[in-house]
Amino acid sequence: MSLHGGDIYKIYRETNIKVIDYSANINSLGVPKNLKKHIKNNINSLVNYPDPNYIDLRNSISKNIKIPMENIIVGNGATEIIFLFIKTLKPKKTLIISPTFAEYERALKENGSEIHYFELSMDEKRFFIDFENLKTELNNFYDLVVFCNPNNPTGSFTKPEEFEDIFRSFPNTKFLIDEAFIDFVENGENFSFKKFRNSNLFIVRAFTKFFAIPGLRLGYGISFDKEILNKIYEIKEPWSLNFFAGSCGTVLLEDKKYIKKTIKTLKREKLRMLKSLNKIKNLKVFESHGNFFLIKLKKITADELYENLLKYGFLIRKCENFKFLDKTFIRIAIKDNKNNKKILKTIKKLIDY
Amino acid sequence: MSLHGGDIYKIYRETNIKVIDYSANINSLGVPKNLKKHIKNNINSLVNYPDPNYIDLRNSISKNIKIPMENIIVGNGATEIIFLFIKTLKPKKTLIISPTFAEYERALKENGSEIHYFELSMDEKRFFIDFENLKTELNNFYDLVVFCNPNNPTGSFTKPEEFEDIFRSFPNTKFLIDEAFIDFVENGENFSFKKFRNSNLFIVRAFTKFFAIPGLRLGYGISFDKEILNKIYEIKEPWSLNFFAGSCGTVLLEDKKYIKKTIKTLKREKLRMLKSLNKIKNLKVFESHGNFFLIKLKKITADELYENLLKYGFLIRKCENFKFLDKTFIRIAIKDNKNNKKILKTIKKLIDY
Questions:
Q1: Pick from A271, A265, A268, A299: which is nearest to A283 by CA?
Q2: Can you tell me the distance from the alpha carbon of A229 to that of B137, in angstroms, rounded to the nearest whole number?
Q3: Which of B30, B77, B234 sits opposite A47 (nearest CB)?
Q4: A215 contacts B50? CB cut-off 8 A
Q5: Cβ distance B25 to B151 under 8 Å?
Q6: Which of A75, A155, A220, B94 is disulfide-compatible with B144, CB 3.0–4.6 A?
Q7: Contacts of A289 (CB under 8 A, 6+ apart)
Q8: How far apart are CA B189 and CA B186, in angstroms?
Q9: CA-nearest residue of chain B to A46?
Q10: Distance between CA atoms of residues B46 and A308, nearest Å
Q11: Is the interface score ipTM higher than 0.85?
Q12: For residues B143 and B91, what is the distance between their CA atoms, to the nearest angstrom?
């Protein structure tokens, strides 16, 4: 289960070190104050089952993203939504635009899909899609294409308009677009694939990263295909979001102050980190539209840097288990200024000697 | 989605009535104080992903029920555990001892099992198992038998010893025993099927009802079959319990005061209610080992009583959608003395005229 970043519990059990976690891409502003207040004031509501239809939550999301409530399905983190969609669709042949988040592959394998990978080339495209190549590949009849946008772990971001021709050209292919990081893009909502309102499209969203609540488990899906939504509801377990997850959507989405501050802080820290990273000789950093950076190391391996940084109390994400990446790649989150400075100084010391 | 009790949200949306919920079998003592304190003090931990292995939680359960941690798997309510087990086992032919909780059937149908029902007869056995008949039935080669003990909604309870002969006689059959209500049985732990430590046995447990936290989503499974546990872990979604669910086990299991008070209060209120119910002419009440009563109405239908009680602010569970029950059955929870008196007085008024 070390498929993902953020397993600080295992690290703590094994090393007794309480690390600063640069391996999970979580908003460094931390749990929103309004959410804390909401939870404190509503603990007694645990005595009731959650609303199995999560009407209030879906209503809040609907108003916020301007998509009808009936097109929105909520889940126990984006993960539940991804698993439900793939289990329902049961695609025979899938193309995953890679390197990317590992759970798509897990869900696909579990449901017996043949999996192919479309490589985002580092050298020629710096991990952006080569649309001509993609179009050629899609002539091989895929039931499903999976694409994470902004992409984890590369940070690359594709505007929906660039994808429009692909949708039109392959009307028999479904597209799973994971927008778990889109809130970190300035005016991200304007760049969502939702604008196509296309029944071949299934969009995944998460509250996790932006609102710094991976412990809460809250995500949702957007679909314009009634049939697939009905099928998902047929197999969905009741009450998969607990009361806190189910009731906090409104509080979070209305917290405009937190949202603004996040975008502003991230923009500033991203620029600062990028500048500093570019000054470190023995690595190459990639432009990112997320709240993290993918980095290629030139001198030492990810394993070595990982072990050394752990001694300084920093946990980073090794990227070897991402398809098409290898032992030279790491991913680090963008956190608060003080810690960012510290980790970059340490990295510089560890690799530019 | 009105398969279950407790959907107070729908009632509120449709009628604007905030009901007293006798339809869900939740401990009337409410959310434990220690749990509230724990949650208030740990909100900031939402910033981390839950421990994907839930070591602390499984450790607490292990100590408490005296079963090794590796035999315990935790889930988002008992429901996730039931679904995972059935999905992993994929039984071709299943016998459900009925009437009982509806989610087994849903999970089995989803996984393509042929389903048969073994009827707990009301007239001859007052919903207790006729073991001779069961043995005869099991000669028809079942992959899985599902049994809820104490059984929801009948309240009947079978001591594990009575089942022992069945286990021995059918070594090729698996048994899913749902003990979601066993904590309400005095010294219930002594009557758990866990004592058999048999690899054909899969036991389901829940924190939901006893600790009055259906909003939290916390359950677990006990298995002595390593192979099946490994297979479940392969398909389990990571982090299906959120931080609060994953971190409160210790607090709850160590709250001996709450546990004792629950058993004591329940015993007293159950007796009081039983006495009063027996004084109402136009119904028949069944002995219960849970925190609820199954009742057969003699004069009016469950629909009529349901609608009438709603006018008085009480929500009850109609039982028509339980296999082998019909429009004359209702289930009511055992709650606090004041409300119990009120609802019984109202029922008497509504049916003994």
A1: A299
A2: 39
A3: B30
A4: yes
A5: no
A6: B94
A7: A150, A155, A156, A157, A181, A184, A185
A8: 8
A9: B215
A10: 28
A11: no
A12: 5
